[in-house]
Protein 1
Amino acid sequence: MATSTPASVPGPVPSSKPLGSLSVSPLSLGGNVFGWTADEATSFEVLDAFTAAGGNFIDTADAYSFFVPGNKGGESEKIIGDWHTARGNRSDLVIATKVGALPERKGLSAANIKAAVDDSLARLRTDYIDLYYTHYDDESVEVSEIISALDELVKAGKIREIGASNISPERLQESLDFSTREGLAKYVALQPHYNLVSRDTYEGPLRDVAARYGLGAMPYYGLASGFLTGKYRPGTNVDSARSGKAAEHLATERGRRVLAALDKVAERHEADQATVALAWLAAQPTITSPIASARTVAQLPALMALGTLRLTDEDLKLLTAASA
C-alpha cells in the first residue's frame, strides 16, 4: 500500500566542521558584545557556557569596541585572552580576530598588518591566532602586499589561517589568484553580511567566488541585529543597544513575511525563532558557521540549538520564499 512521503530531512548536524586546517563548531560566538553590552564577569559566564555546550569557535576583532564611549578598542580581545588564560583551555579553542578597522591600526599596509597582529596577540595572551581576517578591504593597497604580509605571518607561526571580510568579489578573486600564482597563503574563510532579510549582500558574485574556491563563509548579522529572534513586534519596546536597527525591518513587507515564516517553522519544531534563522543560514551553500553573539547566558541556548535543529526541505522553501 502506498504511503505518503514526508518532506526530506537532512542528516544530523555535524558537531564540528572543517575550515582550512581548522575544525570549528556549527556556531561562531560573536565577541563584539564583550566589553560593550556584556561586562567582563558576564562575558566570562557566556564563554564558559558556550564551551561547556561544545562550542569552540570565537569571533572578535581588534576594533571591538572602540565605538563605545570610554573604550579605545581591543576590549573584547583582552577579555577573551584573560578568560582562556584563567581557564587554561587555549588549545581547545579556535579564535578568529580581524585587522584594519581599529582607528590607530587602520588599513591593510604590510607594516600595519604586522604591527596589528602583535597587538592582538598580546591582548589575546596567545602565541598564535587561528583565523586572521582583513576586517575591511583597503583598496589603496595592492592585494600582493596584503597577501604577502599575511603569508609572512603564517610562516612565522603567528596565524594559522587567513580570511577576508567586507570585500568585493573582484578583489577576493584577485587575492585568490595571486595566492595561487605565487604559492602563498590563501584565504580559506569569508565573513559576509548575510541573513534572511539581507540576502543580496552575499548571494550572487561574492558567493560564487566562495563556492568556486571552497571558502567557508561565517555570516555576520546572522540575526539582523536581533530582529530574527522574533522579539521585535509592533508595539514592543526592546531594551537593546541595537534595537533601532533591528526594528527597522518591521516597517518592511519582507520583514513581516519573514517573521511570519519564522513563527510557523519555530512552532512546528518547538524551537526559538533565532534557532530557525541560524539553521536556515547554516543550510545555505558555502556557509560553515554563522556568527551570533549573546550578551547574557540566557540568550545562548537558542543560539547553540543550531547544532541540533534539522530543518526540512519544506521549512527551507518556506523561509527562502518569504525572504525573497
Protein 2
Amino acid sequence: MKVLQFTIPVPLDKSIIVQKDVMPFFYPHLHRHQEIQMSWIQQGEGTLVADNNMHAFRPNDIFWLGANQPHIFKSEASYFQPKSRKKIVALVIFFNPNGELASLFNLPETKLLKNFIQQSQSGFKVPPSYTAEVSSKMMQITNSSGTDQLLQFVDLLKQLSGYTDMTPLATAQKTQMVTEHEGIRIGNIYNYIMQNYDKPITLEDAAKQAHMTPQAFCRFFKKHTLHTFVSFLNEVRINEACKKLTDGAFDNIATVAYTCGFNSITNFNRVFKTVTTQSPSEYMTSYFQNV
C-alpha cells in the first residue's frame, strides 16, 4: 500500500536511530517508511493498525514493524480532547537493513539474523514474558554509542531471533498497492471509524466520509483492506472492549458492550467470540492469568 511516505532523519554518523517520543498523542496518520521500527510504549494507550490488522496497545508493550509496513498508532480519543493533559512516551529504534547496515547482514556469521529480519516483515508484538529483557536491551542500546551500541543492537536481534512464539501483526495476505491519494482516503476512513466506534455507524455514514456511493465504497474498502466495512468496525469495537474489560474501569461486561457501540449483549458476545475465539469472561481470565 502506498500511503504517506515518512522519512526518518538519519544522522550521518549513525546507522541505528534511537528516538524518545514525548508528545500529546502519536503521529495520527497512516504511514510507512523504509526503516524497520521497534517501539516500546512506555506511556499511552490506543490501537495499532498494521497492514490490515488491529491490536490494542498499552504501557510496556513492544512492537516490531517491518520495512514499508503501513501502520498507525492511534491514541485513544481522550488524548485529542482540547483540555487533555495526557501524553504518550515511547522509546523507538529505527534501522534500515538495506542501507548502511547491508554489509553487516551480508556476512556469513549474521545469516540467521538476516533470515529473522526477512521473516519478520509482517511485524510482531513481543510476548509479555519477554518484555522485561527486551526493554532492558533497548535501554542498553539507548545508553551506549559507537561500537558498543552496534554490539548491543546485534545482541538484541540475536535475542529476538531466539524467540519461537512470535505472532505476526498482519496476515500473510497483503493488501493491494494503491495510490497515495487512496492511501490518505483509507487513513481518513480508519480515523472516522476509530473515533466514532461507540456510536451507531452505518455503511452510508462511512461512504460519505470517502465521498463514494455505498456500493463503490464496499468494493474499494474490501479491495484495499481485505475487510468488509462491518468486519472492520466489529474489530475496532472488540479491540476497544478488550482494553475496557482489562483496565478495571467498568463494573460489568454489559456496560463495556454498550459503551463500545453494541446495542445487544447477545450480539456483543457472539462478535467477541468470532474476533477473539474466546468469550469475554474467558478473555478476562486468560489475560489476568498471564499478566
Protein 3
Amino acid sequence: MPKWPDAPLSEVQEVPIDLLAPADSPRNKGVDTRHARLLAASDAVLPPIVVHRGTMRIIDGMHRHQAAALRGERHVAVRYFEGSEQDAFVLAVRENTTHGLPLSAEERSAAAQRLLESHSQWSDRAIAAIAGVSTKTVRSLRRDTESARAVSRVGRDGRARPVSTADGRLRASELLEKDPEASLRTVAQKVGLSPSTVRDVRERLRRGKDVVPQRQRTHSTHRLGPPSASVSATPPGQPGGTVLNLTRDPSLRFTEDGRLLLRLLVMHQLPTQRREKLIASVPPHAATAVSAAARECARAWSAFADQLAASQGGVASGERRTTAP
C-alpha cells in the first residue's frame, strides 16, 4: 500500500470535545445516531479518535465522538495525524473500510472517485484496497477522469511504475533482436520492465506480432512524437541505413503488418561480407536452385517496390527503377 496514509500518529492526548470539527467523512449520511447511542450505553473504554492536526477535523471516530458527548464527557482521547488534508481523507476511507460501521457500496465507490482525483498517481489496485472496492470498479472510474493520462502510478508497495510499458517493450525488442539468447532478467533490468513482460515481448517477436499491445499504443505514440522526427538519424546512403531508419518509425512499429514488413526488410539485408560467407556455404549441387530462389525473391521485392511507388503517385524523385536479375 502507498506509504502516505501510513504516516505515524501522535501519542494519545486528552482534547476538549468542543475543539473538534466534524469529519470530512466518506459517509454520505453522516453519523448513525442509533450506533452512537449503542456505543454510549456500553461500559467499554472507547479507542482514541484520530484527528487531523492542521484542521482539527475528525478523521476516524465520529461515532465515538458523539458517544462521548452523549455520556456527558468534556474531553476525549485523540491521536493526531500530521499529513495533508488529501492524505487525511485517504486515512479516513481506509479506517472506515477496515473496522466499525461498514461503508455502503455507494459510499465506497464515491470514496474511490475522490481518491482518483486527489491521488491519481496511485495504481488501480492501491486505490481499490483502500476504498474497499474491486480493481475493475476503479479502472472504470478512472476512464472518466483526467487521471487516466498519468505517466506513472504508485502501487501498493509504494513503488512507481509506468502506466504504459510501450517504450520499454520497444527497447526490449531491439535488445532481443540483437541478442536472441539474452536472459529475460538482464533485458528487464536494462529497460525497466519485469521479466514476465520481457518474456511476452520475446513471444510476440517469435510469432511476428506487434510487441506493443493495442491498448498501449496511444501512450507510446504520444511520447515518441511524430514519425518524421525519428526517420532521419542515419544517412540513407550508408549500408543498411534506410532499413535502420525505417525501424525507428513508430507508424510502422505500432502495427502488426508494419512490424512484419520491418522484420522482412531486416531479414533480407545482405551486406557484402555476409554475402560472401553465404555463397561459400552453398554446396555445388544446390547452387542452381538457390540462385533461382534468390531471383524469385528479388522479383517479388521489385514488384512490391513498383506497386508501392505506383500507389504513392509514381516513383519517388531520385529513385531509379531496376529490373530484377
